[in-house]
């Protein structure tokens, strides 16, 4: 059944828009009028947006991308409706009016129509890889094949909510230091490019021998005032170079290796990637997915090429009959604690529970370490800013003191 986007007027004359499915444009108009809405324009939407060729510079995808929080909320609501006995199509139909995102509402409407046409829920989801990850699609497929779709949806909601909650806590912890760093940089830029040149111009016109700190300040001020645009270009070039490097195999490998080798941050990145890997693998195994298939699904979930390569190599060894813990230990990428816990889980027959425990432990460690680092970062930033401002004040005051001594 086709899906239409409409703009209409309600009974109060206010403009409203949304999505509706009908056999045709005329049927869509009649359906809207029957609900007390008077259509102004109706346009059919088309499926399979993922098959379009990507543009070189497509900024619209940053504004139309479905947020993980929206997917988590939809999954939780869908699991509740399916557990209450709603048929899948009816449950999706009930969720459409509650979905705030216009793009996500269109995706859900097209998924519902795909199911009505005879496709499975997993097949319908797989048509939108930009919205639903391979993990999501494969877990839904496992739930459909085993008849436990409502349980799978509940676990998917738990996974997405936990990951989103962790990301939100990390972003909250880093928001204040980043804001202070940005404000401090702007203040220093204004001081060096606008205020300091006006003050130091007085000293240079006097043709007097200036102290070394003042000369350094004049040089830095002149450099920033003359070449601030070059610094912006250099910064933009670095960002573009990193983005392009991510799109190549060698560049992505080098960047991920560099991140893992960074002091402090590398350990946190490693633990966060391992936590994502173990939680996803544990959820797949709990839903009846075989070990080899699960490892194939999660090898790209970690978000780090080195860990993904280690998982891919371990999957080959597991296929030969080797244990998962021993296979992962050979890569020397996974933390020793995670290897030990995986081996204990394999020996006790409770690997799924142990994988989830590893994720909990590492996520808590990452959050605790980030909170500790941010608590250290704030006084360090204040000290650095105070030292820079003190240097500027000292560089300006020294010539003034010398002039006072000459006058006396």
What does this structure look like?
The chain has 3 domains: 3-45; 66-160, Receptor-associated Protein; 182-408, Type II secretion system (T2SS), domain F (Receptor-associated Protein), CATH 1.20.81. With 408 residues, it is mainly alpha-helical. The model is unreliable at 47-63 (pLDDT under 50). The chain contains 16 helices and 3 strands. It has helices at 25-34, 60-64, 68-83, 88-95, 102-116, 121-126, 134-146, 149-205, 212-246, 249-261, 265-286, 291-298, 305-319, 324-329, 336-348, 351-407, and strands at residues 3-9, 15-21, 38-45. The longest helix has 57 residues, at 149-205. The protein is 73% helix and 5% strand. A 3-stranded antiparallel β-sheet has the order 2-1-3. The protein is flat, with a radius of gyration of 29 Å.
Give a brief rundown of this model.
With 408 residues, the chain is mainly alpha-helical.
List the keywords.
three-stranded antiparallel β-sheet, 5% strand, Receptor-associated Protein, mainly alpha, 408 residues, 3 strands, flat
How are the secondary structure elements laid out?
Elements: E1 3-9, E2 15-21, H1 25-34, E3 38-45, H2 60-64, H3 68-83, H4 88-95, H5 102-116, H6 121-126, H7 134-146, H8 149-205, H9 212-246, H10 249-261, H11 265-286, H12 291-298, H13 305-319, H14 324-329, H15 336-348, H16 351-407
Antiparallel strand pairs: 1-2, 1-3
Helix pairs in contact: 3-4, 3-8, 4-5, 7-8, 8-9, 8-11, 8-16, 9-10, 9-16, 10-11, 11-12, 11-16, 12-13, 15-16
